Amino acid sequence: MAIEIEKPAVGLSKVAVSDTHGEDSPYFAGWKAYDEDPYDELSNPSGVIQMGLAENQVSFDLLEQYIEKHSEATNLGNRTSGFRDNALFQDYHGLQSFRKAMACFMEQIRGGRAKFNPDRVVITAGATAANELLTFILADPGDALLIPTPYYPGLSKDLGLPGFRVGTIYSYNDKVVTTARRMSSFTLISSQTQQLLASMLSDKTFTENYIKTNRERLKKRYQMIIDGLKNSGIECLKGNAGLFCWMNLSPLLEDPTKESELTLWKSMLHEVKLNISPGSSCHCSDPGWFRVCFANMSEQTLKVALTRIHDFMDGRKAMKTSPDFSSY
SUPFAM superfamilies per the record (predicted)? Predict the structure, then answer.
């Protein structure tokens, strides 16, 4: 006869059970709604439009063109110096060619106004890993970090390649650089990814054209959404960079509370099928502000999204101005 051994319950940490950045948070709930019913201009024109994901897809064509023209960058075709080298352990400091290319790219982005030493570059598996690594290096138990709000949870936005999981730590403090390198073995990037990006970022012709074109396209998209929201009577915070804007829907709240904000967010998600991020999911202190991403879709899809927002606002205005016959 088999004896059943009672398994002790495993308790989870407060962080694990928190609803601020878990599967039950508005951020992930909206993402799930999109995954279950994604918008497609032809096959699903009434689906959910994803405006809650801060991705930069406006210049994907430039990245794809580069990879197509420089397939040797992956070096998989060379049996001896390609796959076998990439499949083995590399220096956990990161490939020297990649750190050099990253330092040059950082200088380019800043218009040459700053110089970066490749020996002070520490690479990590994404910006989130970089922040975590710095926390372990600089903070002791009981210490606190001061973070301005609102803020976005997960990063990796410069090239619009968040899936490549590449982050960078750069410090003028020798102890920080040395310790970060020692601990970076926990956050390594694959050698193949480093090799591809080293080739791409070392190509000055490509990077200069990418930076210029990408900024022009982002500026155009930003103006599109700002003008579109203004035509719908929505105020936005003024910005000069980034992949999203903050729009103010506080006039539509029944009460100036987080609960009322989430009720409005659910209405937009289910009535007009737009996934935007309520400010509370980014720890915004004032209820009614919503983060709207505009660079993760085509211009045509953005126009559809703006039309839906306009219709939503018209519907809310009509509800406010309609007579109340309940007292008659």
Answer: PLP-dependent transferases (SSF53383)
Joined tokens for residue 107: 């200088």
Contact 279, 286 (CB under 8 A): yes
Report whether pLDDT(107) > 50: yes
pLDDT averaged over the chain? 84
> Rounded to the nearest 5 degrees, what angle is found at the Cα of 94, between the Cα atoms of 204 and 296?
60
State the Cα–Cα distance between residues 263 and 271, nearest whole angstrom. 12
Q: In angstroms, rounded to a whole number, what is the distance separating the alpha carbons of residues 186 and 124?
A: 9
pLDDT at 155: 44
179: its two tokens: 């310790």
Cis peptide before 150 (omega within 30 of 0): yes
In the Cβ-directed half-sphere of 193, how many Cα atoms lie within 13 Å?
15
Q: What tens digit of pLDDT does each residue of 138-195 get? A: 999 899 888 888 876 564 555 667 777 888 889 999 999 999 988 888 888 888 888 8
Mapping DSSP onto H, E and C, the string for 144-157 reads CCCCCCCCCCCCCC
The model carries a pTM of 0.80
Domain borders along the chain are 18-58+211-314, 71-202
Instruction: Specify the DSSP class assigned to residue 187.
Output: G
C-beta separation of 122 from 181 below 8 A: yes
**In CATH terms, is domain 18-58+211-314 a member of 3.90.1150.10?**
yes
Query: What local confidence, expressed as pLDDT, does residue 174 receive?
Result: 94
- Condensed to tens digits (0 to 9), the pLDDT of residues 58-90 reads 888 888 888 888 877 665 555 455 655 665 556
Cα separation, 54 vs 68, in Å, equals: 26
For residue 211, the tally of other CB atoms under 10 A from its CB is 17
Q: Are strands 274-275 and 49-50 parallel, antiparallel or unpaired?
A: parallel
71-202 maps to CATH 3.90.870.10: no
Going from the C-alpha of 240 to that of each of 13, 111, 237, 250, the distances in angstroms are: 39, 16, 10, 23
- The b-or-e profile of 277-311 (16+ CB within 10 A means b, else e) is bbbbbbebeebbbbbbbbbbbeeebbebbbebbbe
